[in-house]
Amino acid sequence: MLIPFLFLAATLPPAPPPPPAELSTIVIPIRTSLAPLLPQLEAQVPKRMEKLDDYELDPKQQFGMKYRVVRDPIALTVIGSGIHAMTTVHYSLEGCRRTQKPFTQVIVMWPCVSCGFGEPMRDAWISLSSHLDWDANWRLRSTTRAQPVDFSSKRCQVTFANIDITDWKIAPIVNEQLRQAVKTIDANTPKLTNIRPIADQVWASLQAPVLIGPRTWLVMDPADVALGPITGSGLSLTSTLTLRARTRVVVGERPPVTPRPLPALRVAQAPNGGIRVPFDVDVPYEEATSLMMENFANRTYEGVAVRSIRLGASPATNGRVSIELDVSYHASFLKHYDGFVFLEATPVFDPATRTLTLANLDYSLDPHRRNPFLRIANRVAHEQLRATLAKSAHWSVAPQIDALRDEIARAVTRPLAPGVMMRGRVDTIEPGTVVLDPNGIVLHVLATGSAEVEISAMR
User: Fold this and answer.
1) Rounded distance, CA 59 to CA 239, Å?
2) Mean pLDDT, all residues of the chain
3) DSSP 3-state of 270
4) How far apart are alpha carbons 151 and 127 in whole angstroms?
5) Model pLDDT for residues 143-181, shown as the tens digit of each residue
6) Could you tell me the residue ranges of all domains in the chain?
């Protein structure tokens, strides 16, 4: 629906330069899961390794061994900014000395020592941890380190020739599983999330001006983009892509756009701020004059008849607005005046009532505007005239503010690309400065709120 003040803005002469652009923060939550990594780990890390059909001899052929190594499923979890993986390895081991009988020269495997055969298998624990961050290609990157294998639970003591066979044989098998797990995690983590295509889409979409009224545009110029630190729990990873843009409302023809490429990635904490959109509310002098004529003219105040009232077509000095009244005052044969009276006032915005008020209203001290009214009229008359005018000189700009607030909220709630939706809201309207230009009173206002981009393809 066409809102009146936008129509007026479209028909008035060129407006003054817009207020400075504000930096808005648009938050894009990044969510991904480690669930796809588990099948890769389970497939790449052997579940069972054994040598049971014959003895495996040491390089010097002094002893032989049989063994069985079985691991549990791998437990994977995110704690803070890291991945933690662990599993329990169960093992059995039999070690025998390679002995030659003295008379027959027959080689036999004797004596033997075993553990985990015919009794519960012994346990060892594998654990590793990965630190997660973002690489230069906008992908997750992991740096994984394995912890020493923990054989502390009832260690299998099988020793020949001062060689601990558990360390000599079982530890390398378990360590190979650890190395394979490290390689699998670091190779597959970058495949979990690629942020760049989404960042490109959002960056490009925000650069297009959005029409929010007749010849009125919401302009968002992206300034920079950063990825936040990675956190998570369970199998879920979260981060934040924060995009900052300079925002403003522009009245006139569609602003030209020179597309800017996505800047280099940087990692930083998400700044506070939300969206901040400055815009102007215009009260043309003609509109203000009409309102004051309706509420004040053609009436008599303490013997002073006000025939007409008009706001000056140009600002007075020191940011004050000039007011011209045509009055008729007839108190006596000697005390009478017909003509113009000039006053000045400071326009002030009251955020509680969303009204513009003419404050500090007083008679003009400009020598070129002085007239006999102040000398002829008694003090009661001209004080009443000033007080009544001060009481009447206010205009509600709530409809204009609310209309633009709604338009801005709609403009920051829109699809940016397939599967990419920006949702925003305007929470508060912060008053800014009140300035005067040749066309009227201009109120600079700041709309503040928040905006978040939802990416359904990454859920």
Assistant:
1) 52
2) 85
3) coil
4) 12
5) 999 988 888 777 787 776 677 778 888 888 888 888 899
6) 35-191
